[in-house]
Each structure stands twice: as C-alpha cells, then as structure tokens.
Amino acid sequence: MEAWEQAIDTGTVPENDSVFDVIVVGGGPAGSAAAAYNAMNGCKVLLIEKGVWPRDKICGDAVGGKSLSHVKELGVKGMIEGTPHFTVDSIIFGSGRGNTVRVMLPQEEFEKKEAGYSLPRLQFDYMMFKRCSEIVIENGGSAIQGFTVKDVRVEEGRVVGVSGKVGGKGASEELNFSAPLTIGAGGYNCPVAKTVTEVMHNEPMRDDEHYCGGFREYWEGVSGFNGSQGPIEIHFIDEFNPGYFWLFPVKEGVVNVGVGMVFAEQRKQKGDKKSLKKMQEWVINKHPMFKKRFEKAKLVKGSSKGWQLPFGSPRKGGQPYQPRRSATAGAMCVGDSASLVDPFTGEGIGNALLSAKMSSKHFDKDAHADGFPEEAADGYMRELWSTLGPELTNSFKLQRWAKKKWLMNWVIGKAGRSEELADMMTGMIADKEASTQLWSKWFLFKTLILS
C-alpha cells in the first residue's frame, strides 16, 4: 500500500459548541493551506473535510509553478518529490488542423524545480491535508474528516460558524462550531460561498458563462510520452471548439486525458457533442491526430469522472466585486469557492494557494475577536482582484480568442514554424504582464504578418 492510500489520523472530534478563531470548510489544497497559514499566524483553527482519506479529487492534475513557493513554504514540496510524479518542462499547444507548437517553460524555473509538476490529486491532496492538519493540530487546533456541513450559521448579519454531522447519514448528533471567521474552501458548490453570495447579499453564485464542465480519465500506454519529464499537451480541436482536449502525464506510463467546455457553450452543441464523455470517446477512437496514439493504450478502470470548474473571468452586470463576491462579515472564500480557476488553462491550484495565504493576512484574531468585519472582507476582495484580476482578465481574453478557429490555426501554425515566436510565447508564460501582447492588434500584425 502506497503512503497516500493509508488513513490519516486527525485525532478526536472537538466537543459540541467548541469555539475557534477560524473554521475552514473544505480540506483540499485551498482549505488545507488556508488552515495552515492561519494556524501559523497564531490562530486556533478547525479544519473540516467532507471526505475521508484516502479520497480522489477529479482534476486535470497539473500543479503549476505558481503553486510551488506555497507548497515549499508549507513543507509539502519535498513530500511530492519523494513520490511518483511528472515534471513539466513545456506545453504543447495544438490546433484543429494538426499544427502544434511546443512552448518551453523558463529554463531557470525548471533548473530550480519551480516550473511545475503533474500528479494525481489523490496524492497531492493527501500530502497537503496530512501536513497542513499537522500544522493546525500543533498550533492548538483540530481537524475533522467525514464532516458534512448542514448549515452555515448567520446571526445579526454576520457568519458565526457551522453546524453539521460526522459520519454521514448514520450520524445522530449534530455538532455546532463557532468562530469569528469561517473560510469557505468547499469547491464549486461550497456552502460558505452560497451563504456569502446568495444568502447574505442576494447575488448569484453561479453563472454558466463562467462555469466549465470537465471530464477526465486515466490511460496507460498513450504513445508520445516517455519517462517522468516532458511536456503536457493542450489541443483546440475544431470539432468541439470552443473547448479543448488535454493530455497531462502524471507519472511514467500514466496520462490524465480530458476535455473541458464552458457550460453556456456546451448547451449550444447538438447530439453527442452535448456529452463531454462522448466527445472524448470520439477524439480517442476516431480523430486522425489521436486515434493512433491510443491504439495500444488501456483505460484505467473506474477513472472516468466529471466535475465543474468555476472560472475567475470578470463578470458583466455591475457586480460590486470581481469575479464575484468572495467575502462578507464573518466569512472569506478561497480557491474554487471564490471562483478563481484560470479561464484559459483551467489551472486553479496556484490561485487557490495564493488566496489561502492572503486570507491569513486579512484576519487578525485579536482585532477581529468579536467577528471578522465587513470592511476587512472588502479589503480582502479588493486585494484579491488587484493581484489576480489582470491575469484572469488576460486569460479570459485568450479563452474568447481560442473560439476563433481560423485564428488559432493561423497562430499555432505560425508559431510552430517560428523559433522567435515560440521563444516569445515562453516569455509570456514567465511574465503575465507580457502576455497582454497576445491579443494586441499590433502584436498580431507585426509578429504574424511582418515576421
């Protein structure tokens, strides 16, 4: 049995009506990190996870370079490197006509082992929760697995804690826990996020223009990959554009294969194109560019699963906060719960960890002992968007740009023949500010026509 397939001992469940400085709902990367950072900041933290380890999390499995400084800070990076994983050195982008360009990740980041990894979330989430729950307990807090939140409690216009049960349907006693701050990290359907948006402020939590459906499978023996280091692949296939097909190796011989599409676009499709599973089956079995690569491949039984990604793209309609309200009196949301997934790449862990650390900056257990105030929530939301907004807005423009089939074919074809353009794209991956050039009309004219 592998280390990440074993149970995690989180000790005894706290007594009913226990009071903490911070309650974190959700034990994925965002929640685990938020719990650990707040515990390291002197807070007594309760970390709640609905599942019981070992547990899977459906995802594309890429852990980008942005994540690694946080992973190292929390003491998890060495744990990752000691388990089977794939080291990402580049990204292959493909167009519908079969054109491809390989964009190398910055060499200095790769040499410092900061370019990024790809490994199953079963492993990554296990290591994050295990180490972060240890940090929480070492600092006087508690961690609970198998706890289902039944209610996010609100009193006098402020979130004051949660109620729920341990052990699912068979559980008898409902437990109540209170804190000046409750952090929502429960993913795309987080109960804290629902309370922050719909209950507290009568604002929409979900917008199908900014929610993506994803479907993934694990395959063994897909051709084109060798060893435990190399590229991940993202392909914009004409037959189900807008959307993309990905191939992300997670360790030697095993590849995460998936497809994603924004819900609003998926509803416009007809026939089999409405089903992400059937779309993927078609690509694997019939697409001329991929069917040979899967001829000798074998599907890992039980790995076919779907999930949802809440994008961090800017919303229209006069919302006071972007991408949507993510905090209020008594509560903050982080990661997917705050709708922070990159709308172009689908990567969410880096933004999740950044928001998790930021939550500890905006909560002061002494100053906020009587409750996390609305003005502090406002400060968190404003810093979160000022930090991530430019990047997420850029990615949203790239997402819309990718819908133009002729333009994707043209740009990727040109980049595949131009070393200068490929190098420029590498620089844009390293420098998010430089990536704004990608949709500049002058850039397109100068690079794609004059060069």
Mind explaining what this structure looks like?
This protein is an alpha/beta fold and 451 residues long. It has two domains: 3-75 and 120-205 and 312-396, FAD/NAD(P)-binding domain, CATH 3.50.50; 85-115 and 208-309, D-Amino Acid Oxidase, subunit A, domain 2 (D-Amino Acid Oxidase, Chain A, domain 2, 2-Layer Sandwich), CATH 3.30.9. It contains 13 helices and 20 strands. The protein has helices at 29-40, 65-73, 77-81, 107-111, 121-138, 191-201, 263-266, 276-286, 349-362, 374-402, 405-417, 419-430, 441-450; strands spanning 18-19, 22-25, 45-49, 62-64, 86-94, 100-104, 116-118, 142-145, 147-155, 158-166, 175-178, 181-184, 211-220, 229-235, 244-251, 254-262, 298-299, 305-310, 327-328, 331-333. Strands 4, 5, 6, 7, 13, 14, 15, 16, 17 and 18 form a ten-stranded mixed β-sheet that branches. Helix 1 runs parallel beside helix 9 and helix 2 (65-73) crosses helix 9 (349-362).
Secondary-structure blueprint of this entry?
Blueprint: E1 18-19, E2 22-25, H1 29-40, E3 45-49, E4 62-64, H2 65-73, H3 77-81, E5 86-94, E6 100-104, H4 107-111, E7 116-118, H5 121-138, E8 142-145, E9 147-155, E10 158-166, E11 175-178, E12 181-184, H6 191-201, E13 211-220, E14 229-235, E15 244-251, E16 254-262, H7 263-266, H8 276-286, E17 298-299, E18 305-310, E19 327-328, E20 331-333, H9 349-362, H10 374-402, H11 405-417, H12 419-430, H13 441-450
Parallel strand pairs: 1-11, 2-3, 2-12, 3-8, 5-14, 12-20
Antiparallel strand pairs: 4-7, 5-6, 5-7, 9-10, 10-11, 13-16, 13-17, 13-18, 14-15, 15-16, 19-20
